Amino acid sequence: MGQDLFDGYATDGFYDELLTADGEVRPHYRALYDKLATFSHEELARRERLRDAAFRSAGITFTVYGEEEGVERTFPMDLLPRIIPADEWAHIEAGLVQRVTALNRFLDDLYLGERAVLHDNVVPRWLLTSSAGFCRQAFGVPVPHGAHCLVAGIDLVRDADGTYRVLEDNLRNPSGISYVLENRAAMTRVLPVVFGQSRVRPVDHYGASLLRALRHVAPPAAGDPTVVVLTPGVYNSAYFEHAFLARQMGVELVEGRDLVIDEHVVYMRTTRGLQRVDVIYRRIDDDFLDPVVFRQDSMLGVPGLMAAARAGNVTVANAVGNGVADDKAVYAFVPELIRYYLGEEPILPNVETYLLWDADQRAGVLDRLGELVVKPVAESGGYGMLIGPAATDAEIAEFRARIEADPRNYIAQEVVSLSRHPTLIDDHLEGRHIDLRPFVLTGERVEVIPGGLTRVALRRGSLVVNSSQGGGSKDTWVLAGEGQPLEPAEEAAS
Amino acid sequence: MRLDIRYRCRFDYDQPVRESQNELRAAPAPHDRQSLISYRVATSPPARVLTFEDYWGTRVDAFGVRDSHTHLEVVAESSVETRPQPLLTASPRVERLADPAFLDEHVEYLQRTAHTAWGPTIEAEARQQAGLVGPDVVSVVLALHRRVATTFTYRPGATYVGMDVEELCTRREGVCQDYAHVMIAMCRSLGIPARYVSGYLFTADDSTGDIPEGEMVEVQTHAWVEAAVPGHGWIALDPTNQQEVGERHVKIGHGRDYDDVQPLRGVFAGSATCELDVSVEIRKGTVTAAPAPTPRPHRQAQQAQQQQ
Amino acid sequence: MLARHAESLFWTGRYLERAGDTARMLDVTYHGLLESPPDEARRAWYDLLEVLDARAAFEATHGEPDAASVSRFLVLDPGNDGSIVSTVGRARESARSVREMISTELWEAVNTFYLELFARNLRHDLEQQPYELYGMVKRRCQGVAGTAVETMPRDDGWRFLMLGWMLERAEMTCRLLNVRFAQLVEADPTSGFHDWIGALKSASASEAYRKAYRASMDRSDVVEFLLLSRTFPRSVLYCLEEAERFLGELCPPGELTHAQRLLGRVRADVQFVDVHELIDRDLHDFLDGAQFYIRGVAELVATQFFRHHVDLELHALGRL
Questions:
Q1: Which domains does chain B have, with CATH numbers?
Q2: Residues contacting residue B63 through CB under 8 Å, at least 6 positions apart
Q3: How confident is the model at residue A469 (pLDDT cuts 50, 70, 90)?
Q4: CA A416, A421, A424, A427 torsion-angle sign
Q5: Element (H, E) at B140
Q6: Looking at this predicted complex, what is its ipTM?
Q7: Do A262 and B303 touch (CB under 8 A)?
Q8: For chain C, does the N or the C end have fewer beta carbons within 10 angstroms?
C-alpha cells in the first residue's frame, strides 16, 4: 500500500496544489495520485535512482568549481511534478503576454520613443531617473521590433485562495530555462506512464523558438543572420545554461575576447578568419558589456559593442537598460503601464506593494515591519531581503535604519502565503511552498513556453525558493485542453 | 564672441597596440548662449566615425582602430559664437527647491555619484556657508561658489581623478574637475540640483585686456558648474576662476559628474605603455554676421566617413 | 570554429604529451644513473635540463644539479612552466576552456589525472617511489590519449588536439634521441646493450624495437627506429606524417599554406636521411634542426589559425 506516502500529510490551512481544503484530490492530479498510490517505498527509491541516473547520463551534473575542485552533484529535482490544468494555464498565458507586451512598449517609449509615459505622468519621472537600472547609455540604441525583453522570466506565486500573482519581473538575464528542459527530459524516464497518459504540453521546442526570436530581431540588413551566445566564461555559475542554450540552438558559444569590432561591425575570431556576427544573445550584465561605455575595468565584454549596436550593425538581446523596468519600485506601476499602453485591465495582479519614499506608506510599513517582506529594489535572486515574520528584532532594526537612510531603494510587500505542493522529504510527502517562473519570448509574437520552472523551498516552512538560497525544483506539466493539440501548429509544422 | 578651437589628443605607444575603441566628446553643444558654426573631427590612423547625440545632448564621435598601430591622434576643430549669460532677475527662496515638479525634473542632479559622494564634512561646510547668507537659492549658490573659489588652491598633480570628494575638500587643492566636483557636492547636499560642465575656456591675458584677433592661445580643457534655480533655469559658475561663466566659456556638455562628459574614453589591447599629449588652442575669430542657427544632430545614429 | 577553442585544443594536446615525456625522460635518467659516479650524473642531469630547455631556469634558482633537485624542479615546481604539475595544470585549464568542444569522458580523464596528481604528496613520492610516480604520469597520459581516440568526434576540434599532440611528440622524441645519444655514444662509444634498452624504454619503445630488430642492438638501428619507424607511433617520422595528415585536413584544398610547406619539408628531411651518415657526422645538428623546424611549424599553425585570437589585455586610455 503506497497510500502511506501521504500518511500524516496535512495542508495546514495553505492552498495545496494537489488537495482541496476538504482533502479531495484535485481532478488534474488524479492520474498522478493514483499512480503514487501503487508505489512502495522501494519503488520510490528506485525512481529516485532512475532520476539521478538520467541526470548523470545526460551529463547534467553540476561541477562546483573553485575551492572544492571537481565536486559534482546531481540536480535537486523533486519526483512529483507540478501540474497546471489547461484553463488555468490559458489565464496565466494571457496575463504574461499582456504584461510582457506592455513592458516592451514601456521600454521602447522610454529609450527610443517620445517618453509619453513621463509626459502623461503615468510613472513619476524621478522614479525612473533615480533607478539604478535606468541606463542612459541605451538611449537611441535601436531595438528591432521593440523586442527589449526578448527573454523574460516572470515570477508568479499563488496566494491563500489560489490566485496567481506576479511577484517580480526578471527582464535582464533570467536564468533557469535549462532546468526546465532537463527536468522534463528526466521526468519522462522517471514517470513515463503517468506522463504518457497526461497529455503534457512539450517544452523541448524552446531552443528552436529562442533561435527564431533571435533571428527575427537581427538588423534588417542581415540576410541570413549569424547568432551567438555571449557568456562571461566557465567560472560563471550559469555557464552550464549558456553552453546548454548554445547547443540547443546549434550556435557558437563565445566569450568577449572571441569577438572583435571593426568599423562598428562585430566579428568572431575563427580558425578561418573573421566571421560577421549579427545577433548576440548575451548573458553578461549591462555593466560589463562594453568597457568603453560601462565599467572600464571589465574584461568580459566587447569594446565598441554599444557603438556597433547603435550603428544598427548588431542586435544585443536582451536589450540594454531593461533593469529600469524590473526595478521593484517600478514594478508597482506595471498594472498602470498595462492600462496605459494597452487600454486593458491587468489579467494577473501584483502582490500588494508599498513604496517607501511615500511618507505615509513608509510610516505604515515601519510600524509593522515584522509582518511584511522588504526587498531592495535592484536585487534579484532573493538577496538582501527581510522576511518580517521570520526576522529577529536586530534584523528588523537594521532594515528600519536602511529604509530611513534610503527609502527610494526599498519596497515592502505583504507576505504572500505561497501555495504548497506535496514534496518528497526522505521517504514520505510533506507540503512545501512553491512558485513558478514561466519564460516568455518576444519574437514575431510574444510566446510563453508551457509551464516554466517551479521552484520549491525545501526547508520546512521556508518561503524562499531561490536556487541560490537552497531551493529545489519540480517539473511543471501544463495539460493540453480537450481537443487542443499538444503543440502550436507552428512548432508542429517545423 | 566668435571662437575657433582646435582640440588635439595624441597617444604614443612604446609597443604596437590594436583594437582600440574610443568615444570623443569634444564638440561644443548648441544651446541658448552658444551657436556651433562648424565642427569636424579627424583621426590618425583614419577611422570610420559614428556620430550621435547622447542622453545628455552631447555630441559623441565613436571610432575604433582594429589594426596594429603605435599612435592614435584625434583632432577636433570647431567654431562657435558665444553670448553672455542673461542677468538673473529672480532669486526664489530655498523652500521652492522642495517643489514636487522641480524635484521630479532634477532628481538625477541631486544624487550622490562616484565623484560627488559627499559625506558629513561637505554637508556641514555647505550648511555653514548657507547660514551666512539670505535664504534664497542664488545667494546660497554664490556663497558656495565663493567658498570653493577662495579657499582652494589650484595645483595640478596634487589630486587624481577618482579621489573621494570628501578628501578633496579636506586637501583644498586640485584642478578644475576637483573644484567642480566639490561645489556640486556642496550644492546637492543642500538639495540644490547641480551638474558638471565640460568645456573650453579662452583664457586671454586679462591684464592687457584684449587679444589680437587671429592669434592662437594654448589652453586646456576646462570644467565648471551649473546649478538649477527654481523658476529661472541653470546658472553657470566657474569656481576655478571665481567668475560667472561668460562669453569665453565654450560648453561641450553636462552630466552628473565627470564620467558623463569625459572628453575621451577608450580602451586598447596590448601591453604597451602610452604617452599622452593633449592640447587645446583657441583663437578669437573675426566677427561674422549672425550665424544661421545650427541644426542639432539627429537623434538617430548617423554614420559618416571622416578622413584626415 | 572559434580560434580560441582551436588554440586551447592544440595546447591541451601539447601539454599532455610534454608531461608524459618529461616523466619518461626523468624515469630513465634517474634509473640509468643510480650507480654512476657523481661527475657523470651531474653531466647527465645537465644534459636533461638542456634538452628540455630548462637549464637556464634551473640555474637561476638552484645550484649544481643532482637527482633530487632536478626531479623536484621538473616534477613539482609550480614556478617552472615545464614541470609536470605546471603542464598538467595547464592542460586541464585548456581542456576546461573547451569543455563544450570535447567529450565528457575526455574532460573527466584530464580532470581525474589532475586531481590525482594534486592529491599526492609529490615530494614524498619523489624520495620514496619515483618509479611509481613516473609510471602513474605515463599511464594517465596514455589513458587520456586513449580516451580521446575512443570518444572524440573526428571534427576540426579533434584535428587541432591531435596536431598539437603529434608535433609535441615528434619534438620530444628528437630531444630524447639527442640526450641519450650524448650520454651513450659520446660519453662511451662502447656502450652496451643495456644502455640502449634504457634509451628505448624512455620512448616506451623497447618491445616494439625488439619485434622489429630481433636481437640486434646496433646504435644505428636504434636511431633509425626512433627516427624513421613507420610502425612505432612515437617515431619522429610517424608523428610528422600524422601531423601532416591532420594539418592537411584542416587547411583549405588548393595551394599549400606556409605551415603545410614547412611541415612537409621537415618530414621529408627526416624521411630521406641516411642514418649511418648521420651518426658518423652530425646527428646533433640534424636533431637540433628538426626541433627548430617543428617549433616553426607550431608557430605557423598559430599564425594561420589562431592569430585572430588575442588574449586581450585591455587598457583604459588615460582619463583626460
A1: 2-83+262-289 (2.60.40.2250), 94-261 (3.10.620.30)
A2: B21, B22, B24, B43, B47, B48, B49, B50
A3: low
A4: positive
A5: helix B137-151
A6: 0.88
A7: no
A8: C
Q: pLDDT tens, B261-294?
A: 999 999 998 888 888 899 999 998 765 545 444 4
Would you state the cell numbers that stand for residue C294, as one nine-digit string? 617543428
Residue B66 touches chain C, beta carbons under 8 Å: no
* Interface residue B262 vs chain A (CB under 8 A): no
Q: Which residues contact B148 (CB under 8 A, 6 or more apart)?
A: B179, B182, B183, B186, B239
| Residue C69 belongs to some domain of the structure | yes
Q: Predicted confidence band at B211 (pLDDT cuts at 50, 70, 90)?
A: low
- Chain A positions with Cβ closer than 8 Å to B: 124-126, 129-130, 136-137, 139-140, 142, 260-264, 291-293, 296, 303-304, 307, 310-312
> Is residue C173 within 8 Å of C242, Cβ to Cβ?
no
> In whole angstroms, what is the distance from residue C230 CA to residue C270 CA?
12
Surface-to-core class of residue B133, CB atoms within 10 Å of its CB (0-12 exposed, 13-18 middle, 19+ buried): middle
| Residue A14, helix vs strand vs coil | coil
Suggest the residue from C308, C310, C311, C319 to mutate for an interface test with chain A (most A CBs closer than 10 A). Answer: C308
Other beta carbons within 10 angstroms of residue A83's beta carbon come to 26
Instruction: State how far the Cα of A463 lies from the Cα of A375, in Å rounded to an integer.
Output: 14
Nearest-angstrom CA–CA distance, C112 and C17: 16
Structural domains in chain A (count)? 1
> What does the pLDDT average to over A17-35?
93
Alpha-carbon dihedral sign for residues B149, B151, B156, B157: negative
Question: According to the 3-state scheme, what is the secondary structure of C19-83?
Answer: HHHHHHHHHHHHHHCCCCCHHHHHHHHHHHHHHCCCHHHHHHHCCCCCHHHHHHHHHCCCCCCCC
Name the most confidently modeled range: A5-9, B29-33, C49-53: B29-33
Q: Is the peptide bond before A173 cis (omega within 30 degrees of 0)?
A: no
The pLDDT value given to residue A1: 40
> Directed axis angle between helix C193-202 and helix C206-213, to 10°?
120
Could you give the angle at the alpha carbon of A403 between the alpha carbons of A398 and A408, nearest 5°? Answer: 155
Q: Which position has the grid cell 506565486?
A: A157
Q: Grid coordinates in use for C44?
A: 647527465
pTM of the model: 0.87
CATH number of the structural domain spanning residue A408: 3.30.1490.270
Local confidence pLDDT in tens for the 320 residues of chain C: 999 999 999 999 999 999 999 998 898 888 777 777 778 788 888 888 988 888 899 999 888 888 899 999 999 999 999 999 999 999 999 998 888 888 888 988 998 899 899 889 999 999 888 989 999 999 999 999 999 999 999 999 999 999 999 999 999 999 888 877 766 665 555 555 566 777 777 777 777 887 777 767 677 888 889 999 998 999 999 999 999 999 999 998 888 999 999 999 999 999 999 988 888 778 888 998 999 999 999 999 998 998 765 555 556 554 33
One domain for residues C97 and C212: no
C-alpha C57/C-alpha C53 separation (Å) is 8
| Domain of residue A376, residue span | 353-414
Determine, for residues B268 and C315 on separate chains, whether the beta-carbon distance falls below 8 Å: yes
CB of B64 within 8 Å of a chain C CB? The answer is no
Check pLDDT > 60 for residue A394.
yes
DSSP structural state of residue A351: P
Smallest Cα distance from A261 to chain B, Å: 7
| Contact present, C115 and C91 (Cβ < 8 Å) | no
Q: Which residues of B touch A358 (CB under 8 A)?
A: none
Range of the domain at C106: 1-152
Q: List CB contacts (< 8 A) between C307 and chain B.
A: none
- Nearest Cα residue in chain A from B20: A303
Answer yes or no: is C312 within a domain. no
